[in-house]
Design goal:
By secondary structure, this protein is α/β, with parallel strands linked by helices. The chain has helices at about 25-35, 40-45, 50-65, 80-105, 110, 125-135, 150-155, 205, 220-230, 245-255, 300-324, and strands spanning about 5, 10, 15, 20, 70, 75, 110-115, 140-145, 165, 175-190, 200, 210-215, 240, 260-265, 275-280, 285, 285-295.
């Protein structure tokens, strides 16, 4: 049986009958986008080029726009096609995750914990919680999803993940919350940078410098944080956004193409020619809160055990913070 998505129009407050798009049409479009050729897409999917052409044409007719520019040397996405391909890939990934979640729903109560996060696990309080949980509950399968905050909130509300760990003050808008820790911030610079040998830096030292951030999570959060903090010093933030993940971004820092703001969790990893310098304000370490959010109606026993350990770690972290 074919799987369908339904596109619905709305007029005068009433939903109309929708137009269906087969999931295989989307898979076909993505195969052409990835291979750059209708012929190569046919080989990837094991069907003829004519079938690929028919499915793409049907999709374009349904959307009312051209998805590809055709030429004798291949096919490339149009502006509309590029936007549709990006969102379709995200939708396909979410659909697969939804199917897996449904298939495991009967056994996930005791044996699986799904964690969504915007932070690294290389260091810090979250890593400690995960290590202790893994040691004490080795029978529980842990799975992790890293994405931007909005997507993770959606996954949480639909119970595709059990708990969300993200930067920010805990608010009860999306469920029950726990402040896990206040995490120190660092400035990442190239080893040859003029600040590389310093024990710490202040915001006033870096406010006028050019920062680089990732377009992927947690880049947008860091971007907004930089704008807020740098504006406090009367500067307009100079920020370049790169379509790279964390490792690629740190490689750009190492090449001297800009500095970046990171939290302590990232400092557990090492990158070529990159130095991490503690960030301070008024003589104290600059920190941001990291919180856990979960749905109160989630009765997964593995989640309850994870939260119990998180509360223990949070209590120790709070006591340590008061002493420092």
């Amino acid at each position: 049986m074919n799987e369908y998505l339904t596109i619905r129009g709305q007029r005068a407050g009433r939903w109309q009958q929708g137009t269906r798009i087969e999931m295989f049409d989307i898979e076909t479009m993505l195969a052409v986008a990835e291979s750059g050729s209708f012929r190569k897409a046919g080989k990837l999917l094991g069907i003829g080029q004519s079938a690929i052409t028919r499915r793409v044409q049907k999709l374009e007719d349904t959307l009312g726009v051209s998805v590809f520019e055709r030429s004798p040397i291949g096919a490339r996405l149009t502006a509309a096609g590029w936007e549709f391909a990006i969102r379709s890939r995200q939708l396909a990934n979410q659909f697969q995750e939804t199917v897996r979640a449904a298939q495991s729903a009967g056994t996930a109560g005791n044996g699986q914990l799904r964690v969504g996060l915007t932070a690294s696990l290389s260091r810090g309080a979250l890593r400690e919680v995960v290590e202790r949980f893994q040691t004490q509950h080795s029978d529980v399968q842990l799975s992790f999803t890293e994405a931007d905050l909005g997507e993770l909130m959606t996954l949480l509300s639909h119970r595709i993940i059990d708990v969300l760990v993200a930067a920010g003050e805990p608010t009860p808008d999306h469920g029950d919350v726990l402040l896990l820790t206040n995490t120190p911030l660092y400035i990442a610079v190239a080893r040859g940078h003029s600040m590389a040998g310093r024990r710490y830096v202040d915001w006033s030292d870096v406010a006028a410098m050019s920062f680089i951030v990732s377009a992927d999570a947690p880049g947008p959060t860091i971007h907004d944080y930089l704008i807020r903090r740098i504006s406090d010093f009367g500067h307009q933030a100079r920020i370049e956004v790169h379509g790279m993940r964390r490792e690629g971004l740190m490689n750009l820092v190492g090449l001297g193409l800009g500095i970046s703001l990171i939290c302590e969790q990232w400092c557990g990893a090492r990158y070529p020619d990159v130095v991490f310098i503690p960030l301070r304000e008024n003589g104290k370490a600059e920190t941001i809160p990291f919180s856990l959010t979960w749905r109160p109606e989630n009765d997964n026993p593995a989640l309850r055990r994870f939260l119990s350990l998180a509360r223990e770690v949070a209590k120790v972290a709070a006591a340590t913070s008061e002493l420092s």
